Amino acid sequence: MAGMRKAEPWALAAILVLLYLAFPSHYYNFDGVACAIAVELGDYSRLAHGNHLSYGILGRWFYRLWQLLGYEGRAIVPLQALDSLLGGLGVGLFCRILLDLKISRATAMLAAAGLGISHAYWWWSLEAQVYILGTFFLLLALRQALRSRPRPLWLGLWHAQAALGHVGHAMFLPAMIWRFWNDRAQGRAALWRYAACVAAVLGAVYAAAAIFCVRPADFQQWRVWLLGSAALNEDRSFHWYGGYSLEGLGDWAVMSARVFVDPSGWPEGARLLGWFLAAAAILSAAASAYKHWRGPRSNVSRFCALWLGGYALLFASWQPHQIVYRVSDLPALWILIALGAELRPWLRPALALWIAVTGLSNGMALAGKISPEANRDYQESLWIARLTPENAWVTATGQDQVYLPYFAGRRPLNLRYYAQEPAALLERIEAIELRGEPVFVTRSAAEHALWGPLLASYGLELENRQGEMTLYKVKRNRKSGGINQKKLSRAEALKKGPNGMGSERLSRRLAISDNP
Q: Do residues 348 and 106 make contact, with C-beta atoms less than 8 angstroms apart?
């Protein structure tokens, strides 16, 4: 019986791994494709991202392992498989944690399955992204933290690995401080050993990444690397994407439900059911936390509340509308739900029914992300690859910035680099054409309020149209003579732009590569 109890979590993990691998995603999020590009290039300066240092490097090693075994395809597939493997193993580990808490086998298996089929966890176990890696190590830290006598050094190691998966896991710290502060058996000395281990591991790994991967030449490069996503704007200054506001708190509250079920894309008649399922999960977790706030389970209940509160301090402010950041909330919520399901005999069948309905609903909702035909940007990239020569440049905004070089094998002409000085775009196009390389324009650029008229004034010729996809080829307007025949100087071209930027700034902008 004891052996079966140990094997059941990993049997469940195997089922989830197979489920995730059997239905891979073709949603191809921007960051995942960008990481796949860096993985294939072996560019460790980009793989060692300041906010999520370990995922790209681990992904590169995993991709190389596939290649050693004979794989010759794109890196995006091994990266997605890595997340599916981590996601499924995380479910098994979570089930083991619930069993360690003396939760019944049936409830532990149900709650772990509930984690695995929750919308956010399921979705991001299919995609190439950093968050499942961090959550997996967070679960390792959680198992150690919930022991009667946690080992501070092991706990510090796992927490540091979670933070290397994503820096947001530093917000696990408030729950950990409370855990050790109230530990009469080990005392506060254990807290300092744990904290010293976290600091030592993070310090050593970041130092090694700086020396061997990123090699920042000056303080500015150090700053930009460590800021990571907070320095993505064009001038690389610090920018906080969000801030505390009533609107942000509302987004955060809605996303707290959508991590379980996301009915926003459901048929209108079914959305009420989706919101009911999500609300039932949230209310069950809240009721369980309240019920167990005092009594034998009070430490676990309060620990989960501090865990959720710590992450909320960050993610209610930083991009609260992003679902991916909330994957780390789900284990805490499911612990509370599991504790609540033990209170009454009828709650366990109700939980099983919720999982069955939600699993089916989430699976149907994810079908759109699983289907390659549903990804319009992906299909357009394949279409552009068939229509254009290998030396072509194609205007790029949004997903196209990574889709075009990765799926189409074409060089992207990133329009965002020219937002402040549009005339520079025409100079860039002319320079490309003088090298004998054609430039193509997508429908989104041709219909853009700023870029459309500018490109049309230079000259566009319809190349092909298929359904909603349209492709134009840049062809100098002979009636107007084009920018060459007008002999516009750099300064004159700038005057025609809306901002009249100086030539020094333009030179810096043109020096930026058009590749991501």
A: yes
Strand partners, 460: 474
3-state DSSP assignment of residue 396: strand
Q: How confident is the model at residue 505 (pLDDT cuts 50, 70, 90)?
A: very low
- What gap in Å lies between CA 315 and CA 177, rounded to an integer? 20
pTM confidence score: 0.89
Backbone φ, ψ for residue 381 (5° rounding): -65, -45
Task: Name, in order, each residue with C-beta under 8 angstroms of 182's C-beta and a sequence gap of 6 or more.
Answer: 299
Distance between CA atoms of 492 and 509, rounded to whole angstroms? 17
Q: Could you tell me the residue ranges of all domains in the chain? A: 2-372, 376-510
Statement: residue 30 has pLDDT above 80: yes
Contact by Cβ (8 Å): 116, 139: no
- CA-CA distance, 91 to 95, in Å (whole number)? 6
453 contact partners, CB below 8 Å, separation of at least 6: none
DSSP category for residue 242? B
Q: In angstroms, rounded to a whole number, what is the distance separating the alpha carbons of residues 96 and 90?
A: 10
In degrees and rounded to multiples of 5, residue 240 shows phi and psi of -90, 115
Q: Check: CB of residue 425 under 8 Å from CB of residue 493.
A: no
Q: Which tens digit of pLDDT belongs to each residue from 135-150? A: 999 999 999 999 989 9
- 196-215 in b/e form (b: 16+ CB < 10 A) is ebbeebbeebbeebbeebbe
CA nearest 66: which of 55, 54, 80, 53? 80
Model pLDDT for residues 226-251, shown as the tens digit of each residue: 998 887 776 778 888 888 999 999 99
- Could you tell me which residues are beta bridge partners of residue 393? 411, 439
pLDDT score recorded for residue 320: 94
In the β-sheet with 460-466, what is the strand arrangement from edge to edge?
411-414, 393-396, 439-442, 469-474, 460-466
Show the tokens assigned to 488.
Answer: 């516009």
Task: Please compute, for residue 3, the number of CA atoms within 13 A of its CA located in the half-sphere on the CB side.
Answer: 0
| Residue tagged 């921007």 (tokens) | 30
Q: How many CB atoms lie within 10 A of CB 484?
A: 11
CB 291 within 8 A of CB 340: yes
The DSSP output letter for 211 is I
What are the beta bridge partners of residue 472? 441, 462
Report percent pLDDT > 90 for the chain.
Answer: 78
In angstroms, rounded to a whole number, what is the distance separating the alpha carbons of residues 135 and 390? 40
Strand partners, 318: 242
Annotate 470-515 with DSSP letters as a single string. Answer: EEEEE---TTT-HHHHHT--HHHHHHHSSS---HHHHHHHHTS-S-
Residue 212 is given by DSSP the state: I
Q: Which of 97, 78, 135, 84 minimizes the C-alpha distance to 325?
A: 135
53-68 helix and 152-165 helix, angle to the nearest 10 degrees:
80
Residues in CB range of 93: below 8 A, 6 or more apart: 9, 13, 136, 139, 140, 143
CB of 27 within 8 A of CB of 83?
Answer: no
